[in-house]
Amino acid sequence: MTDEKEAGDENVVGNRGPEIGMAIFLLAIGGLVVTDSIRVGIGWADDGPRSGYFPFYVGLFLIASSGWTLLRALIGKSPLKGEFATREQLGLVFAVLVPMVAYVALIAGLGIYVASFLLIAYFMKRHGKYGWPVTAAVAAAVPIAFFLLFERWFLVLLPKGPLERALGF
């Protein structure tokens, strides 16, 4: 008896879909790198290579390797066989990924400190099962500590939202 799922089980996600998805994503990133490298210049100047020279070739390599991976996955010649993850494992990944994406989106409107408070509070309550007093204390203390560290000590400004502006920061 084993805990592993069989390859034909409907609760298993195969390798093909994630492999194709990542290949397309990296192909797009490579295209972005090449396009921007061309914009800033990929040739030689009198004093040496221009800013986009090295990134241009890295982007080309990324496009070529991602294109090769995508082609092999589409025609079924990928060396990766079997399962990528079970649906339960993917659920655990998305339980962390979705709040992190929301956190990044909230930074623009609420600022990094309020967004950090919300993220820490969410994880402590939802996943850590801590009580409200501990959750509130830690969720408030961490952004305050980061504010003091970055804004006061290192003099590095981080994104602020309406609360910080209302408090005069």
Automatic annotation (TrEMBL):
Keyword Transmembrane helix: yes
Keywords: Membrane, Transmembrane, Transmembrane helix
Keyword ATP-binding: no
Transmembrane segments: 20-42, 54-71, 92-124, 130-150
Domain of life per record: Bacteria
Residue ranges constituting the DUF1468 domain according to the UniProt record: 22-159
Protein name (database record): Tripartite tricarboxylate transporter TctB family protein
Organism for this UniProt entry: Piscinibacter aquaticus
Lineage, top ranks: Bacteria, Pseudomonadati, Pseudomonadota, Betaproteobacteria, Burkholderiales
